[in-house]
Amino acid sequence: MSDKTVYSRRNLAIDMLRALTMFTMIFVNDFWKVHDVPHWLEHATYGEDFMGLADIVFPGFLFAVGMSIPYAIEGRYSKGYSPESTLGHILSRTFALLVMGAFITNSEYRLSPDVCYPIGVYWFIMAIGFIGVWNQYPRTASPRQKNIFLVCKVVGVLALLFLAFTFRNPKGGVFGFSGGILGAIGWTYLVCAVTYYLSRDRIKYLLPVWIIFILICLLTTPLREEFGAAPILDFPDRNFLSGLLGVLHIGNGALPAFTMGGVLLSVFSARYVAKSDMWKLRTSWIVAACILLVGIFSHHFYIVAKIGGTPPWVFYVIAISVAVYGTLTYLVSRGITGWFNLIKPAGTATLTTYLIPYVFYGFADVTGYVLPDWFTHGFMGLVNCICFAFVVIGVTWVLEKLHVKLKI
Q: How many CB atoms lie within 10 A of CB 79?
């Protein structure tokens, strides 16, 4: 068993990993407004045997989510919360991610001309709704303040209900329950958090679950064309296995493999916390190198592609995540953390950081503001996206100072 006191202390390296991932996510998600982006920074196209920087960000965030799970659950137990309330907390967080994901995903279809407001207003109202419902309101508040907070929550709920009932996509379709990125995070979090909730930090249970996810990915992902272009378990479209995986929201196992990999790394880190800093750095790079070699081997049989969640993509991203976390842990141990202050809000107020770009995009839509052409091409386009990421994080920092922070 791990030393449970480790989980009661905030792990700065996880905050750093989450912040770096979120910063990169904002950066690559902003490519839609610029041109001539180098291919190695972009997503691979469907069927392409390639992994760009943008293909690493989402699974890297899932890995960071997994690393946070043991700290969150053990932290609740150390504060005296019951197992029942902890399970309820897991379910409420999942629900929040699914709801947020649904509103964001529906907006990606844009709006029918018949809707009485533009997409920019949709994003404004969505932000108001999210903040109203899920803002981290101060716990020590007067009765009057608590009433104000209750009103804010009610306003948030009404705002989201208004959007849900009035939304129409360009084809006339109504608001649908499609979770998108946040929904995928929510379902994956649920599977892995419940797994940890049942097993706690016992590696003898966690490791086999991770291996099962990897095996599912290996057996249900189509091989390369020279090997038949079919999965090893090539069942008919309607079969028990795919139905079960669909009900459990496991898919082909790739997404929960990332998150469970993060869970395992946190548990191993807690177990070997007394080891020297150099031992931890060396071990993390050795483990990363071994996983990378497995990825290279699997690449002979599968293409590497985010679309399809292929095994090489899983192994490559996990290897990168382990190496980066090990390096960040070493930097923390040496006190080399000053640079982190530039992006810290992205690691401590991650959901707020994820929401802010939609406010900016809403402003641009409502005002009709267009960036100068010279600031949207090539190198200057990338500078534009980097500056935008820093501005988003800066706004998140300001909002934190004003006690506006999404917390689920």
A: 8
